[in-house]
Model the fold of this input.
Amino acid sequence: MKKMTINGIVAQVEDYWTVLEACRFYGIDIPTLCHHEGLSPGGICRLCIVEIGKGKRAKLVTSCNYPVEDGLVVRTHSERVIRARKMLVELLLARCPGSKTLQDLAAKMGVQRVRFKVKNENCILCGLCVRMCAEQMDAKAISFAGHGINRRVTPPFDIKSDVCRNCGACMYICPVCQLRCQGPEPPNVVCGACMNVEPVCLQDNEDVMCYLDTCGWCFKVKPSSLKKSGYGKEKIEEG
Done:
């Protein structure tokens, strides 16, 4: 066992843990995208960054692949950490604004704008699909290719691999495959609908107008207009 300080509290941790595992063991929520318990650490999305050390020597590190140490001082939600995480979410949203997972993270962190050029890509290069295919499916049908802005996930030679079994594991684990509730062409980069803690449609209706978790439609259209248009009734009948 090792002793380290997490947010001012001395904690005992297992020798083989990472900082992320230690923090989660003690109930501290640290956001991640490229991390999965069944896969090797990636450290690619960098959302799991924490601040280690004190004073001017303090630095930001990725907690998912940083091993615990005796006497290590960790701050998981300092001003510096929160500011960096918000900027990372902005960068990710600029690349894939259609991802519900990223929109949920933005809502959770209070990100309400994106200051970077929107690209509308369909991949954030987190590497989860590559590691899933290699480590869990034992196929290695896809991998990274290229460098810098040309980096992408692809099968060897951009041709479908013979070892691919069409299992769908890569899509299952992908954080951007699930589209946001406003569809593929939303009106704004940041949805903001998940900031609603209660269904606002109940202000003018006896029942909720849909059964989506934190539906984004009602955030853009007044509930009264939904009622008049019969939008909710149509959706229920179609479902």
